[in-house]
Amino acid sequence: MTAWLDGEWPWYVAGPLIGLFVPALLIVGNKVFGISSSLSHLCAAVAPGKMEYFRYDWRRAGLWNLAFLAGVLVGGFLAFHFGGGQGIGISTETRVALAQLGIHDFSGVAPHEIFTWSALLTLRGFVSVVVGGFLVGFGTAYAAGCTSGHAISGLANFQLSSLIAVMGFFAGGLAATYFIMPFLFGAL
């Protein structure tokens, strides 16, 4: 049983399981799925009445989302402490491309050349983490949701705004991969 949980799941198992979330959410009366909505509900629970945006009944709107967020955190903790310990599967071609950009350490979840406290003090690390984090947060707020929320539940609900957001996420990923990362890591 643990070998099945520790190993990679094939696309024909993982894909339908993710796809079943949408009808399950519709059955229980919830059309929102994603982390960013969970963070809004958390802010409404922690700081009620401080800002107009967070003045709503978060228990009715977001109790399920907060349970989902707690599950993500607990699952991440359990996977880190009790998981199989295998590294992240990165293809040889990707390793070669990243090595050309100066990223060589693939021992953890994220490259240590970028995501450490000492790397944060470099221009490359600051732009990657702080500026990139700001842009992700701003984009999530501006798009009214995150990639998982728009791509899974938004598209399943036939929302045009989600289709536009997903196309923007995809275009942004391509631009970051082929233009921004080579410039950022090559120039800095």
What is the structure about, briefly put?
This protein is an all-alpha fold and 188 residues long.
> In one word, what is the shape?
globular
Strand content: under 5%
Low-confidence stretches: none
- Multimeric state: single chain
Structural class: mainly alpha
Fold topology:
Blueprint: H1 2-6, H2 11-19, H3 21-27, H4 35-46, H5 58-82, H6 92-100, H7 117-120, H8 123-142, H9 147-156, H10 160-187
Helix pairs in contact: 4-5, 9-10
What does this 3D model show about the protein?
The protein has ten helices and no strands. It has helices spanning 2-6, 11-19, 21-27, 35-46, 58-82, 92-100, 117-120, 123-142, 147-156, 160-187. Helix content is 69%, strand content 0%. The protein has 188 residues and is mostly helical. It has two domains: 1-86, no CATH class; 89-188, no CATH class. The mean pLDDT is 81.
Keywords:
single chain; 188 residues; mainly alpha; 10 helices; 69% helix
